[in-house]
Structure to design on (486 residues):
């Protein structure tokens, strides 16, 4: 067992110790497990509805409940890890997530399942910011880019391979057992992750850094945590529940007001000499601000692709869940390759890699629209989507991992967890809003035209969002050149 001292400040240096790569393996196992749980369920919803006699609202919350609690706890968990030790919070998150997976897999009814999914989201929200913070903590220079390359590979593969694994498990287990396996598959991986973390993580797992006057447990900033959690909840809730009354959309301006109050509180808290939940000065750093916007915009478009395409090939073309999952395999593999390639070169090429990745993603979307329309008009094989979405996968890997590294490059290590969690919160908001809006567009167009036209409109909407992300990436490149000239 490796005995090392884990510090939450710049005194921690494992840059020459091979243990850092073993730490990364553990972190990526947890990231894969938590993000796969978002996409693996997509193909199991019909089986869940039949087996548990669930209502459409129940099924909506199988997806939404996880996303909601995941997004709400991210930043608070990130700050807790910064202050109390990231290893201990990470392991706690793995335990919560694994136990919730057991509860979900054994659920006797829809209410139990949705409760378990809420708890799963909490576990995932505890794990993810620690992973980003620990990569910042244990990797430096070009190796940090490589580590985030592996991180991006894991994100891309987990999102794309989830439907494939879900379809395979349902085919193997049948309608009654198959959907349960989509949750229980997390249990062995969760146990292995816990064991390896206990063996490989530095000691002590919980490190309390030296506190300055006015800091300590008060730095957890409970009021700031509550304000930010309520703000995220208010913004996300209208988008994750499609059965809301129109009045519930008033939560959106309420959420924006809560974000404003949170920012004012953080400034006041800082002026009183305390360490805030999030140091708002990081938003004055153009690389962090621009990178956060790029990531939010990209996830606003990207994740909805893996809802719209399976929806189209299953409901529009009559594919099975397994066949629908197969459509994303080349994209997943190329996303993994490009994330690794980009991570190794991000220090050399910087934001140019992200710009190139966004261009690939736009080309992938436009070519996918062409495939869908030509299939409808001229009988072109729909399996050409494997090629067009492969370009999208190349772009996905070239965006996520290098953008993560570039965005967090100038963030102080003492705020690595909470700053990374802010970026991830933007991803969660982008994901929830994007899926809700893009699918709403598809279903709004569908009654008046064919599936091909409706899906094409949805994919063109995704393309427009990614174009905005590309413009922001170009702006960031210009900002960096300007700063170097000054």
């Amino acid at each position: 067992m490796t005995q090392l001292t884990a510090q939450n400040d710049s005194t921690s240096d494992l840059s020459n110790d091979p243990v850092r790569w073993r730490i990364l393996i553990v972190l990526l196992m947890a990231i894969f497990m938590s993000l796969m749980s978002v996409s693996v369920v997509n193909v199991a919803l019909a089986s869940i509805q039949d087996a548990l006699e669930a209502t459409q609202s129940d099924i909506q919350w199988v997806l939404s409940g996880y996303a909601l609690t995941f997004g709400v706890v991210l930043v608070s968990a990130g700050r807790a890890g910064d202050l109390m030790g990231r290893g201990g919070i990470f392991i706690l998150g793995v335990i919560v997530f694994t136990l919730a997976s057991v509860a979900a897999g054994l659920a006797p009814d829809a209410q139990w399942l949705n409760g378990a999914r809420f708890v799963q989201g909490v576990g995932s929200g505890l794990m993810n910011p620690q992973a980003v913070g620990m990569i910042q903590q244990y990797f430096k220079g070009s190796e940090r880019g490589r580590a985030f390359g592996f991180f991006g590979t894991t994100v891309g593969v987990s999102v794309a391979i989830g439907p494939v694994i879900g379809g395979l498990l349902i085919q193997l287990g049948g309608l009654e057992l198959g959907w349960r396996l989509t949750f229980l598959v997390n249990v062995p991986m969760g146990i292995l992750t816990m064991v390896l973390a206990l063996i490989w993580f530095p000691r002590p797992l919980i490190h309390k850094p030296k506190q300055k006057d006015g800091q300590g447990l008060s730095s957890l900033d409970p009021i700031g945590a509550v304000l930010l959690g309520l703000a995220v909840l208010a913004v996300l809730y209208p988008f994750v529940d499609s059965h809301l009354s129109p009045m519930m959309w008033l939560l959106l301006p309420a959420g924006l007001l809560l974000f404003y109050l949170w920012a004012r509180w953080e400034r006041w808290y800082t002026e009183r000499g305390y360490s805030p939940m999030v140091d708002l000065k990081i938003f004055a750093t153009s690389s962090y601000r621009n990178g956060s916007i790029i990531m939010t915009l990209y996830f606003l478009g990207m994740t909805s692709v893996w809802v719209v395409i399976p929806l189209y090939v299953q409901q529009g073309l009559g594919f099975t869940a397994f066949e629908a999952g197969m459509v994303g395999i080349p994209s997943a593999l190329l996303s993994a390759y490009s994330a690794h390639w980009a991570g190794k070169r991000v220090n050399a090429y910087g934001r140019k890699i992200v710009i190139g990745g966004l261009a690939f993603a736009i080309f992938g979307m436009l070519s996918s629209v062409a495939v869908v329309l030509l299939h409808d008009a001229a009988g072109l094989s729909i399996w050409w989507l494997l090629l067009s979405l492969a370009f999208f996968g190349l772009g996905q890997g070239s965006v996520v991992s290098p953008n993560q590294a570039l965005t967090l490059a100038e963030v102080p290590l003492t705020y690595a967890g909470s700053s990374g969690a802010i970026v991830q919160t933007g991803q969660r908001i982008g994901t929830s809003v994007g899926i809700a809006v893009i699918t709403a567009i598809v279903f709004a167009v569908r009654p008046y035209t064919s599936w091909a036209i409706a899906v094409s409109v949805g994919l063109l909407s995704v393309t427009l969002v990614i174009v905005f992300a590309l413009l922001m990436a170009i702006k960031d490149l210009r900002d960096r050149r300007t700063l170097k000239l000054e």
In short: The chain is about 80% helix and 0% strand. Confidence is low (pLDDT under 50) at residues 1-13, 207-216.
